[in-house]
């Protein structure tokens, strides 16, 4: 694993994509390009230097992945299958052979590597280096372990009354959403993660650096960051766990003033769910604040992302703008929510393509504050579908490709390779 991460660090995605003769255009902190894997007339492929990933938003294409996938598709076309050991090995070899190596299956479009790296390349390489510096293999291992340990614990507790799983069911989530979203639970006074880390030889420092463990103020021992919370997992394009979010679990009596949602301390707050947007989506992408609202929308079959901490950073705004799909902000039904929506709208700057869809204030006398509360009133899902139809005039706004919250393995059957 460490060797793989090193290989990726030595071969930043932007440099590799350019090596294969793809012309990049800067797009904020990312790049876009004509997709080399389908007949592309407007740049549909985005390259995300900080995530080390690429994703094509072209209708019917949707190829995506990390730098190894990119090389894999170049070598094997749509036959590329990461789980096939000889194919995987071939991709690794091509990648490690570096710029001077001959690239099979890639004669026509190949061009010589530039003698001095273009500006775009340098910028991206730096960004990549920053990222590598921060998301080390040990930190990734710590995050992955935390996601798994808490998920297992949630399941182990079962779904009797008062359990976190029952709480999630009561809020309308299905088992499939819980499993695919890797919901977890970190109880009060937990040492689950610390015990597991010891068994798995993940050092304490990695847990601390990842932010899933915190030293106590007194200096005596540590505590687990998400104690008393349901945990949600965010992954990047390479399907690695890159962030965890904790949601207050009412059964745990956290202090009143404890925030409802907690992200990992000392890390930028994520645009939760962005990397798992389906690659064949055409309908609108709904933007909400709370991850649970986002997961409700996905369960209903809409594409959605959550702006963790309600903080729409420039980079997030750019990514959403770049999607070139209708965008719909669904604010929480209070003053903060509506003001936040206005700020997001100004940040995203997507013109007519961006709409704001307020929820009904109440349904049958029951106040509705957010999407998940709407899910708990009778016919909540129908009411929402009706709202989308009437207010946005968007028939078929639900994603055509799936109703799950995580990408399935790629489905390249309808694409063709040039
Ligand atoms: Zn494509």
Care to give the gist of this entry?
The chain has 418 residues and is of the alpha+beta class. The protein is 36% helix and 16% strand. It has helices at residues 2-10, 13-19, 67-76, 85-96, 119-134, 137-156, 164-170, 175-180, 192-199, 204-210, 291-299, 314-322, 335-348, 371-375, 380-392, and strands at residues 25-27, 30-33, 45-48, 53-56, 64-66, 184-186, 213-215, 222-224, 229-235, 241-248, 261-263, 271-272, 285-288, 303-307, 327-329, 354-356, 362-363, 366-367.
What features would you describe in this structure?
- By secondary structure, the protein is α+β, with helices and mostly antiparallel strands.
- The chain folds into 3 domains: 2-113, Alpha-Beta Complex (DNA Primase, Chain A); 121-263, DNA primase DNAg catalytic core, N-terminal domain, CATH 3.90.980; 274-392, 3-Layer(aba) Sandwich (Dna Topoisomerase Vi A Subunit, Chain: A, domain 2), CATH 3.40.1360.10.
- It is built from 15 helices and 18 strands.
- The chain has helices at residues 2-10, 13-19, 67-76, 85-96, 119-134, 137-156, 164-170, 175-180, 192-199, 204-210, 291-299, 314-322, 335-348, 371-375, 380-392; strands at 25-27, 30-33, 45-48, 53-56, 64-66, 184-186, 213-215, 222-224, 229-235, 241-248, 261-263, 271-272, 285-288, 303-307, 327-329, 354-356, 362-363, 366-367.
- The strands form 5 sheets. It has a 5-stranded antiparallel sheet with strand order 1-2-3-4-5. Strands 12-14-13-15-16 form a 5-stranded mixed sheet, with helices on both faces.
- Helix 11 (291-299) links the parallel strand 13 and strand 14.
- It is globular, with a radius of gyration of 22 Å.
- The two termini are 33 Å apart.
- Residues 100-133 and 400-418 have low confidence and may be disordered.
- Residues 35, 37-38, 40, 44-45, 56, 58, 61, 63 line the site of zinc ion.
